[in-house]
Amino acid sequence: MSTELETQISSEVEPKVMSEEKPMVVPEEKPKGPLSLIVRNVNGTFSERLKDPKTGHFMKKQRPMPSAKELVRVGRQLLTSAEVGPDGKMIRGATTRHRKIFDNLVRIATLETDDPKALMSIIKAAELLYLRFYGKPSASDEEIEALKVHGVKIVVVQSPTLMHPDVVEQKPEDKSAPSFINAEFVTAQE
Closest Cα partner for 50 from 64, 31, 67? Predict the structure, then answer.
């Protein structure tokens, strides 16, 4: 009985032969994209990783770019949130980041100093405060007049009708001699 089982197993393991000389080899199918593997982390938790089948190295996951609305929402949430204490909880009655930025701008704009670099930062802080709370100043009459005179003009040019609208293809020239030589080749016979 065991010999019958061994012959049956050995016949299943041997490669199938199409002809007497060459055995049929079935190529392994390699996945075209990255492999998704579940890997155990150092702390014992599991995470999903991507592996490149060609090189065998782990790859970074492709993450989509966040939308502009999402970035604005997160930025506004950070600016309007209160200060966080050492225990990680919000401090009740603490000033927001937006208020701290405003207070620093006011402090910078009202500095009294003779340092030229500090004066530039004072002017910039004051411009930012005025622009934020009073809005953009209206354009003067000179600026409006300059826009009228030097405005953008759109000119539409239509293509003219051609005398011979049929397209004639150019025939290729014989390139037996270089184009810079304008001579004939003569062989000297003895």
Answer: 31
